[in-house]
Write a structure and sequence with these properties.
The structure holds 3 protein chains of 3 kinds. By secondary structure, chain A is of the alpha/beta class. Chain A has 11 helices and 14 strands. In chain A, a hairpin with a 5-residue loop joins strand 1 and strand 2. Chain B is globular, with a radius of gyration of 19 Å. In chain B, 50% of the residues are buried. The chains are: A alpha/beta, B mainly alpha, C mainly alpha.
Chain lengths: 319, 262, 256
Amino acid sequence: MEVENIQRRYRARTGIRRRAAREVEAVRGLSFEVERGELFGLLGPNGAGKTTTIKMLITLLLPSGGSARVLGHDVVREAREVRRHVGYVFGGDRGLYERLSGLDNLRYFAELYAVPAREQRQRIGELVELVGLQGRERERVEGYSRGMRQRLHIARGLLHRPEVLFLDEPSIGIDPVGARELRTTVARLVELGTTVLLTTHYMFEADELCDRIAVIAAGEIVAQGTPQELKRGVVEGRVVEVEVFGDAQSVLDDVRALAGVTSVSVEERGQAQLVVVRSDAGAEVTSSVLAALAGQRLGRVATREPTLEDAYVELVNRP
Amino acid sequence: MTSSVRIFFLGGLTSYRALFSWLSPWVLVPTFVLGPIFQILFFAYVGRSAGVGSDSFFLIGNAVQYASIPCLFAMGNTIDGERYSHTLGLLLVSPARRTPLFLGRALPVIVNGFVVSLFALVVGAVVLGVKLPLASLPLLAFVVAVSAFACTGLGLVTAALALRVRETATLSNLVFGMLLIFCGVNVPLSALPGWMAAVAGWLPLTHGIAAARELAAGAPFSAVARTVGAEAGVGAIYLVIGLVLLRFLEIESRRRATLELA
Amino acid sequence: MSVLRLLGLGWWLQLKMRSRSAFDGALAIVYPLFFATSVFLIYRQSASSTALVAAAVGASVMGVWSAVATTASTSLQNERRQGTLELLVGAPRPFALIVVPITLSMATIGLYSLVATLVWGRLVFGIEVSFVHPLTFALACVVTALGVAVMGFVLAVSAVRYRSAWALGSALELPIWLTCGFLVPLSILPDWVRPVSWLVPVTWGVSAIKAAALGGQPWPGIAMCLGVAAGYALLGTLLARRMVDSARTHATLALT
């Protein structure tokens, strides 16, 4: 899969009376390549352009500029060829016929994806087993749990044995056990030779699964590489975490201004707030951070190695 | 007192605009302009090909009956739409008085029904070439307004049932169909089986349509005053039933937790 | 062969879905009955009993059109709301072959309504239709349903960008009843209406159904219904292609 400087602009409408149209650049020239059999991750905050990028690659959206080829087929000119070979699974519980059974949903989409009639029964049976829906496949989808729906989605996306599978935030809204099963399924698919492009918010998911990752923010790639490279390349320093009881927001700017500090973020942890301070390699900031936070009631203080999540926060927050 | 008045006018109007999102021309024109005209034309032409009735008969019957589309659907929507957007619960826990609250919602609906009906009557008359006596127009308008009021009363009952039945639109469609058959819209009451004519007497629109036909034929208002009074009376009865039903269902649904079914 | 499977399975599963919404399904049958009943009540006052029988046949077809008119215009919006529209467009099959079974299933529900209206007329109003050519009548009904399904297909793809499409669909119900010879002979309509009616498949379907039930020549109507419907199918296919292209440009496939 080769993506070259792909772009997408939307016309956004604001207001109902005066339809002021304004152009929004959702994707501003992304370029990346995914090798066959690779699991490639697209990471980025909401609205970064992940879904838009995927939709251009599976021919649902036309790019406003640039070009992309999937398995050697151009996504604009050879749309039907592309559609034949790619599968698309998105997260959430939409995209299924509620009033039909899981089996009927699969039969319908098997027909839409032109799975040959004599293979259908066997293929559907295999997939029902793969995603662990056996025994429930004749029930209507309206009675399915979120996790079951998501697994049915995956079975649907695999019906025509796609060579490239696009997974758009597949683990959204499913419980941790379901999410782990999902990761196992995805890993198995990659072992069998499927190329996978995955978008996700969950760092550990990307860390565990992806061969390579591109982090995008505001429609642009801000970093690209293996999870290891990203961790190393971006955050070479250390991370200091301080639990603060009270109003940490008021002193954040002071902490940010300290020499050697590269970024600061705050997470809610029950009654406390966790102030996460990332610093340059070699800079020893723990004592100056504590000095800046003096006057606050502090809890646990810890320093640790950076994780992929730190890399990610660092990347998307960069000015 | 003043707060009741405010709830009546402001609350009514805002909820109407918010829930009854029919204010786009893409809905207004097909539903409120083309809809009634084609219903009038359809039955007038069926009458012509059957050799029964007169254009004026079908014009008045269908123009007045079409008021039930806004009256039933808009009223039903005010309740059903709230449940969709999960605001019904918020509304019912508010301390606002129920009677002005719901009556306030009825007022714009009545106006809507009145305008649609009157418009259909005038345009339909032009299209079919029916001559309505000019002098009768103000009185006809009055009768149409009373009919729209009576029909909105029935709409409030439907809206109340919406708290229990989920398919409000389906219910409104059924009620619309019943009114079409029973109220002497396309067939004089005398040509209906006795039991149907008896039921018709207790439905909104029946008396309104009869009075409008007499006025169009040149009768003075004094001749139809009793019929118009009957229409208003029927409307008032439904309005009261609707309010009582709303109150009852509100208490019921709090007890049985059927408020937020969605 | 595989196209027929796609159409067949799509039709069958869509019909399954539609029949499972008891309330909507029942309304599709009951609503035209209100109008049919009004029509019977009108005709009952006229002296001619043959006119009443002809009205019963004409009125029975009304439901076929209303079943499609009221639902076809919103069908693709419903797919969009469910999140399935993207999957349908993203499939390698031509979009037209995916939409036609949807409207065909609606027309099939309309055939229930056709039977229900005839039964209602028989039981409540004692109207006995003699069915001069029963088999041809059945065929004419199926062909009419097909013609109406193709009309629904054109409606579905042209209304996809139109937010209040339901209002458009409902508003088309009565004009077609009025102008396509269901109950009102084309000869008493204004002259300019006639050529327009001839361009609508259901006009020919209704005339074939009437001829088969009451005596006359059903075959020309059947042939014309199929012919005009083929023209609509072509038109719809072109529209569908444009719709998909425009949706890919303007990003209107997803709801979010």
